[in-house]
Write a structure and sequence with these properties.
Elements: E1 3-7, E2 10-12, E3 18-25, E4 34-39, E5 46-51, E6 57-59, E7 67-72, E8 77-82, E9 91-98, E10 116-119, E11 123-127
Parallel strand pairs: 2-11
Antiparallel strand pairs: 1-3, 3-8, 4-5, 4-9, 5-6, 7-8, 9-10, 9-11
């Protein structure tokens, strides 16, 4: 059984930084594309960042240059380092694993919710004074 658990959310001031972590079990982590999504109240879930099995990274335009996704295959973990946070980054952040193990190189070209089948419960990020 696949388990996906996020942690690291909290309250941070605008311009501050936060690191989210995602721990997984029950899947061959090293061959799964992984992604971070977020959803603010009343808004659609948005793909934030994605990293392929080989380590190629993708970001939605609004976070490019501020967020960094990384994975540690030895620990089966995924991180999202967020810098220069803005109030509009406030959302529930979700970690997700691809629907199946795949070495398709362009899996993350579009960070689509339907491409990911295993989800955590989310961790809240609030950016405010």
């Amino acid at each position: 059984q696949v388990q996906v658990v996020e942690s690291g959310g909290g309250l941070v001031q605008p311009g501050g930084s936060l690191r989210l972590s995602c721990t997984t079990s029950g899947l061959a982590f090293d061959v799964y594309a992984m992604a971070w999504f977020r959803q603010a109240p009343g808004k659609e879930r948005e793909g934030v960042s994605c990293i392929t099995w080989s380590g190629t990274t993708y970001y939605t335009d609004s976070v490019k240059g501020r967020f960094t996704i990384s994975r540690d295959n030895a620990k089966n973990t995924l991180d999202l380092r967020m810098n220069n946070l803005k109030p509009e980054d406030t959302a529930m952040y979700y970690c997700a694993a691809a629907r199946y193990a795949s070495r398709i190189t362009n899996y993350c070209l579009s960070i689509r919710e339907g491409d990911f089948g295993y989800w955590g419960q989310g961790t809240q990020v609030t950016v405010s004074e």
